[in-house]
């Protein structure tokens, strides 16, 4: 079945990752990495919202690989993004006992988005480069907050997926990204419906 880039939905997913090493002591056997993802698409310019998702992974050993069920952990979608979607993925290592960590991060994202005036920027329809720029700045603020609370940043990546590309949104492509700490896979899929095998991204007002 052919993909219609003006009507069909896409999803950006993480099907798996490998924790290559811990940020702290080499004697530490297990840790709890977690993924925070943010996305802003072109469709939301009239009513800007941030697509937010969070997922912790307890007791991951150094060198351990996590393989997600179904299509993987959702960074974005399934949605029709319009001209583009900009995404940012942050992988942190949890070094403390904080209840409801995902909710805490969600509040920080909303608060910093207001401080940075992201709603006004997106509403002005500045194009994908400017939207990615403010998304990167927001992720940087979130990472700084988490590091102040003793968590360690392992890996961060961001980018845009354009409808006007020869392969719209880079659908059906897979990317391997990472550093000395994390090796992560990222897929772009034509996908109409979430498979229910993990949390769907939440649209945050700010």
Determine the number of helices (DSSP H or I, runs of at least 4 residues): 3
**Radius of gyration over alpha carbons?**
17 Å
Number of strands: 12
Instruction: Give the amount of beta strand, in percent.
Output: 35-45%
Can you tell me the residue ranges where pLDDT is under 50 for at least 5 consecutive residues? none
Question: What is the overall pLDDT average?
Answer: 91
From N to C, what is the helix and strand string?
Answer: EEEEEEEEHHHEEEE
- Largest sheet entry: 6 strands, antiparallel
Through-space gap between termini: 38 Å
Shape: globular
Percent range of helical residues = 10-25%
Structural class: alpha+beta
Write the layout of secondary structure elements.
Elements: E1 10-14, E2 16-19, E3 30-41, E4 50-56, E5 60-61, E6 65-67, E7 73-79, E8 84-94, H1 101-115, H2 118-123, H3 128-148, E9 152-162, E10 173-178, E11 182-190, E12 202-204
Antiparallel strand pairs: 1-7, 1-11, 2-6, 2-11, 3-4, 3-5, 3-8, 4-12, 8-9, 10-11
Written account of the structure:
With 206 residues, the protein is α+β, with helices and mostly antiparallel strands. It has helices spanning 101-115, 118-123, 128-148; strands at 10-14, 16-19, 30-41, 50-56, 60-61, 65-67, 73-79, 84-94, 152-162, 173-178, 182-190, 202-204. The strands form two sheets. Strands 1, 2, 6, 7, 10 and 11 form a six-stranded antiparallel beta sheet that branches. Strands 3, 4, 5, 8, 9 and 12 form a six-stranded antiparallel beta sheet that branches. A hairpin with a 3-residue loop joins strand 10 and strand 11 (182-190). The radius of gyration is 17 Å and the shape is globular. The model has no long low-confidence stretch (mean pLDDT 91).
